[in-house]
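Worked example 3. Consider a protein that binds FE2/S2 (inorganic) cluster.
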Amino acid sequence: SFEVEIGSTGQIIAVGEETSALDALTNAGFQIEASCTEGVCGTCETGVLSGTPLHLDSVLTDDERESNETMFPCVSRAKSPRITLDL
Ligand code: FES
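Given these inputs, the predicted complex is written out as C-alpha cells:
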C-alpha cells in the first residue's frame, strides 16, 4: 500500500493493496477521466510532482518511465511510500 498526496491541497489518500490509485482517488471525490482501466489507453494520465511511480501501464516508453513525470493511476502504483500527483 502507499499514499497519494494531492499536489494542490496536500490531502493524503491511502491506497490499499486491493485498490487501484484511480479507484482510491475516485472514492475520495476526484474525477479523473478513465476509459480502459487496464493501462493501455492513456486516458487517465496524471502528472507526478514527487515520489517514484511503479509503472504498470503499456503506454509509456522507457525514457518516459524513468522521467517520473507522469503515471496512469488505473494500474500504476508507487515505489515510494508516498507519491504526489498534479491534481
Ligand atoms: Fe486507460 Fe488508465 S484508463 S490507461
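Take a moment to read the result before moving on. The longest strand covers residues 2-6. The chain has a mean pLDDT of 97.
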